[in-house]
Amino acid sequence: MPPGQPKWRRRKEARPAEIVAAALEVFAEKGFAAAKLDDIAARAGVSKGALYLYFETKHDLFTAVVRTSVAPNIEAVEEASRNLALPFATLARMLLTIAAERAATTQIGAVAKMVIAESGNFPDLARVWHEEVVGRALAAVVGVIERAQARGEVRPGDPRLHAFSMIGPLLLGVIWREVMAPAGAPPVDLRALAAQHIDTALTGMLAEGGRS
Amino acid sequence: MPPGQPKWRRRKEARPAEIVAAALEVFAEKGFAAAKLDDIAARAGVSKGALYLYFETKHDLFTAVVRTSVAPNIEAVEEASRNLALPFATLARMLLTIAAERAATTQIGAVAKMVIAESGNFPDLARVWHEEVVGRALAAVVGVIERAQARGEVRPGDPRLHAFSMIGPLLLGVIWREVMAPAGAPPVDLRALAAQHIDTALTGMLAEGGRS
Amino acid sequence: MPPGQPKWRRRKEARPAEIVAAALEVFAEKGFAAAKLDDIAARAGVSKGALYLYFETKHDLFTAVVRTSVAPNIEAVEEASRNLALPFATLARMLLTIAAERAATTQIGAVAKMVIAESGNFPDLARVWHEEVVGRALAAVVGVIERAQARGEVRPGDPRLHAFSMIGPLLLGVIWREVMAPAGAPPVDLRALAAQHIDTALTGMLAEGGRS
Amino acid sequence: MPPGQPKWRRRKEARPAEIVAAALEVFAEKGFAAAKLDDIAARAGVSKGALYLYFETKHDLFTAVVRTSVAPNIEAVEEASRNLALPFATLARMLLTIAAERAATTQIGAVAKMVIAESGNFPDLARVWHEEVVGRALAAVVGVIERAQARGEVRPGDPRLHAFSMIGPLLLGVIWREVMAPAGAPPVDLRALAAQHIDTALTGMLAEGGRS
DNA sequence: CATGAATGAGTGTTCATTCAT
DNA sequence: GATGAATGAACACTCATTCAT
User: Fold this and answer.
1) What domains, with CATH codes, occur in chain D?
2) What span, in angstroms and rounded, lies between the C-alpha atoms of A46 and A37?
3) Which of D30, D59, D136, D197 to mutate to test the interface with C (most CBs of C within 10 A)?
């Protein structure tokens, strides 16, 4: 046995993350209520009791899953939106590309599905999700649009509804991947969707003079 | 008691519909697993046992709720899309307006939330929802777009992705109303969203020559 | 099947009492925490779920057991103590005889044991037991003693401590029967104990002139 | 740090006693089943695992608590009862005074409450308690009474029941302090109770000629 | 048809006990 | 010796489903 490499190390620091990862899988597959702690524990490679060393209740575990999955992603959007100097077309293309990339490569779609599903049973979670995630992301996009309107780059219109026009199709794509594709629907290429949609949205939103 | 038309006679025939209506409320509020048959029965004004006179299991009741809620709506979209003679701009505006109207006045948003939430636990339902609802609606829109592209009205591009561009923001609006607004987010006017978005989408999708 | 004698009658009215009786047995044997609802249900001849049709929690069932067992007994003592005209010696003899009789023929000893055991975990119960049972019984006895002291029948001294002198040995007898006797100790005849003790207590308590 | 007398050395030997002391507190507050080893360990200032270095099971720890708490007290009673030369009145007064003193200043009341509560679940403990504690104490008192009866000091009557008359009120006082007082009942002064009761009991028990 | 009392399998949670460190 | 992370059996409580009335 090589020294410094104990066969079985106490995992106190790694465990919570492992459990959250396992829980994300199970919650995403089954939903909150249908997810069994036995399954989560088994998938995390621990006993059921061990879950309670790190999370007080199933509720708490679910909340931790959502928070953990979301925090890193929201930063990216906000940061990109702070590139005030860029023309709107460039910035918008950048934002949607980042979003599509994240949606394609992370579990954020599954988390969104969970939040949609359980918003009624987790009022706190819905509020957090609104205040810290969707609200912030939307505010960033709305801010970008408002500034572009002020500079005459984007045509008039409610900036929040413009933001919905920009983001909505991506949400549809994510839901499609999470819900329809597993049921046999032909898959959607999120990156291609983002690329084609941003062309449409930009052409539709840019003021007359701003079009090529 | 007036002979021939006792009040309870009509009840008997209306029961299944009343139960489905009550179930829709409870399922929409709580989700499938958290909905209790006691609550549904109480809200329908019948005994718990009576539910089993009309539906074999909770599963069946849920399926009936989803089917009942969608069938009438899908027809409207398909019918509108058969107006082949209309210019794309007119037809597209019509389709989105109908969709927004339905979304604003029916429970279809709540049902969509339920299907999204429970797709993992109801494979059959997800397939039915795809084959009979979303698939058909999407196919109708895609057909309209393809014909418009063939006539040179709509610029090239994957017609399905174009359809996502058209419909996506409305889904976002519905999710917003069902999930974010109850958590304190400012509400969205679905009709205004549809009106502004179709302007954007049309400008973005129409071929060069087709723009005003 | 004889009419009017259904093979299996709905027991809605009889059930709670049956369950409380079964619960009393099990609680008395094992104590609150060690009593299993499965056992109680089995002994009552019902399913575990049925318990919850009548009692919200195990806690509630325990409380019901205590209340039910006590109410009838306390009346007897209070009633006897209202015989103001009787000489103290007669009344005291009567009270102890009644108490011994009740202790010998009812489950009140087992209930007392339970209350003693669980007073720390059931603050409400301990308070109820004090206010409605022990307190009232003691007050009745103290009242009798005070009146007898006023009439010069009983010698001076704190009437509450005199009451302890009268009642204490009976409690010891009950505890003995519940705790020591099952462990192999020779049994005590509660009636004989009461009879001999009241002679001692009366002789000890009566004023000089009152003794034979 | 002074060499040769490190502070932790004394700890090592004191550990079992510290644990038993902590366990007594927790058992007395919560009862056996509701007492958590975590609490006991925390209160003793050791880890949960450390408990198992000194006691095999929770059962054993409970047994140790009871044994430890009673042994010293029983000696006092037996020793006092060996003063054969003293008149009964003197000896009885002495015994009750000692008992009241011990009851007022030690945890013996809490232990008695525990034994009463758990006698059903700890048959061994109930037997030990009977054979080594209550039985011995009672036998000592009974012996004193029998000798006094032989000398004509105490009137006839079952000596064991006489012993119950002497001791019972003190038990009631202890139960009162442990159970009723914490629930809001007015407290009892155990020493005053013993003093007043022994007057009563002596007057009641002494043979005609023996009274002052 | 309709009721609602009764069932019992299923699950979140606790906690005495173990053992690698 | 001492720790405390980990275990897993045990149990209170829920609720879809049944069926005697």
Assistant:
1) 1-55 (1.10.10.60), 67-210 (1.10.357.10)
2) 11
3) D197
Best mutation site among B27, B164, B205 for testing chain A: the one with the most A CBs within 10 Å? B164
Q: Which two tokens stand for residue D27?
A: 């058992």
Q: How many residues does chain C have?
A: 212
Least confident of A16-20, B81-85, B162-166: B81-85
Looking at every residue in chain B, the average pLDDT score rounds to 88
**Residue C139 C-beta-side C-alpha neighbours within 13 Å:** 13
- Chain A, 117 to 146: residues with Cβ < 8 Å from chain B are 117-121, 123, 126-127, 129-130, 134-135
Which of chain D's residues have a Cβ under 8 Å away from the Cβ of C183?
119, 123, 126-127, 129-130
User: Tens digit of pLDDT for each residue in C136-155?
Assistant: 889 999 999 999 999 999 99
**Pair D178, C173: CB distance under 8 Å:** no
Distance from first CA to last CA of chain B, Å, rounded?
Answer: 68
How far lies A56's CA from each of A60, A123, B31, D48, in Å?
6, 18, 23, 20
Q: Which residues of D75-110 are buried (b: 16+ CB within 10 A; e: fewer)?
A: eebeebbeeeeeebbebbbebbebbbebbbeebbbb
C12 touches strand E (CB under 7 A): yes
SS3 B206: strand
| Residues B192, A120: C-beta atoms closer than 8 Å | no
C196 CB inside 7 Å of strand F:
no
